[in-house]
């Protein structure tokens, strides 16, 4: 009899896991990204980046660009100056605002600050070392959990993809200036592997639609 209960429990867990995967795939399909090319740039380095601490939605001392971050943004500017960008859409946090303004210095384009492009709110983890508050594995499959009081991965994913679609629907040749978790959502939704190089501060990325998927081009 005990063996039967164990079998039922295993079947239940397998069914639950399959259901979670199916529901996640359905959510991804309901938020199909508009098939237009767009550029993405993570902000330049900050002191909290250097200290391996969560920033999230913090906008305090240590979250602005440091000297290295300013240099990185200027290097990205030189690369992106060779590409047509008509609008810059940026997270409103200080580190992304600074990066966006450096990128837009030499071009006649508007900068729009979009709340839904903010980093994931990370609750008690904000300002704390990564190792003390591991959040990397709390994103997927999408769920409603709020680890350490953080924004749930489902809520975060939905606002990021919805915001990106609104941007792509509005204009062409867009640059998104945001954060690694925002990039994580985009890559996951498009079924793309996010490499370590893509996560580098101020690594310009071009997302380009193909007939059967998307191409990622790291610009240099």
- Structural class label: alpha/beta
CATH fold descriptor of the largest domain: Rossmann fold
Largest sheet: 6 strands, mixed
Strand order of the largest sheet: 3-2-4-1-5-6
Return the string of H and E elements: HEHHEHEHEHEE
CATH superfamily of the largest domain: Phosphoglycerate mutase-like
Q: How much helical structure, as a percent, in the residues?
A: 25-40%
Percent of residues in beta strands? 5-15%
Subunit organisation of the chains: single chain
Mean pLDDT: 89
Features:
single chain; 220 residues; alpha/beta; Rossmann fold; six-stranded mixed beta sheet; 6 helices; 6 strands; globular
Entry summary:
The chain has helices at 2-30, 47-50, 67-80, 94-103, 153-170, 180-190, and strands at 38-42, 87-90, 110-113, 174-178, 205-210, 213-218. By secondary structure, the protein is an alpha/beta fold.
